[in-house]
Amino acid sequence: MPDRSKRLLEAAGMLLILALTAVVLYVLLLYPGDISAQQTENRKIFGATYMTMNNPYYHVLDSQLRAEIEARGDVLLTRDAAMDQMRQNQEVRDLIEEGAQAIFLTPVEWDTVREGLEAANRAGVPVIVVDAPVQDAELVACSVLSDNYQAGILCAEHLVSQRDSAKIILLEHITARSGAERVQGFVDTIQGHDGFTVLASGESDGQIENAMPVMEELLRQNLEADTVMSLNDPSAFGALAAIQGAGLSGRFLVYSVDGSPEGKALVQDGLLTATCAQFPTRIAKEAAAQGYLALEGGCCQKEVIVPVELVTAENVSHYGTDGWQ
Description:
The protein is built from twelve helices and twelve strands. By secondary structure, the chain is α/β, with parallel strands linked by helices. The strands form two sheets. The protein has a six-stranded parallel sheet with strand order 2-1-3-4-5-11, with helices on both faces. A six-stranded mixed sheet has the order 7-6-8-9-10-12, with helices on both faces. Helices cover 48% and strands 19% of the residues. The longest helix has 29 residues, at 2-30.
């Protein structure tokens, strides 16, 4: 009896294996609704290359863009140019080789990115510029940008409302057009207001580790300075560290652009005077929409401008400090 039971178990096991094998073969070879085929048959591949991922803003932007694309069953391949335009131009070529049908791009340098744009143009791959404009806009399908010039205006208007005069230091990123437009909006707005003077400017590349030593040197050279306009939150954080290190926190007003969670927390704590908020979620949604339009026959407009809003001590509670807008 034990031998018979053993043989029955062995036979049952063999039948189970054969049945499972038949099911697998049917699904893989015969079933017309093959699930894996449905997932990949019409899948679109997008590429993205950002000027740097050493900035939380681009992590948020990429995450939101990825969510929009993957929700439709498609793929996003992300690259980090690490503040190197030659590297970014090569990344564009690499993404094309990897099958990207459209590319989202934030240029390291607004002019020398042309080489990458031309490579995409030759390959028939549309480019959606995100966050920072390019000089050769005719080579891109659409640009989705914050209102960078307006961000500078809002910071300057707040400064003029707070003080009768100011001795100003600018922290810039001259090769990024978005940063240049923010600073230009600020400078243009304070012109004509007596007592508001730009003493000096320094190149920070929008990076905290660059801004701090630059600001330290500018403070040594401009002892009467009492205001800083920074192109973004990371450069403002570097400026704040230098100001605190020099024991000048009580004197300075510090302005910035981004509206990062950390920036808003510093506004709430009274260390940062104001940060002009960008809306990366809205930018990502607009960029994704334009990317799909570019593949489906063409974008309806060459430029989409997303408004900005100034975050100050008076309204920071409305925006909150636990995330981006």
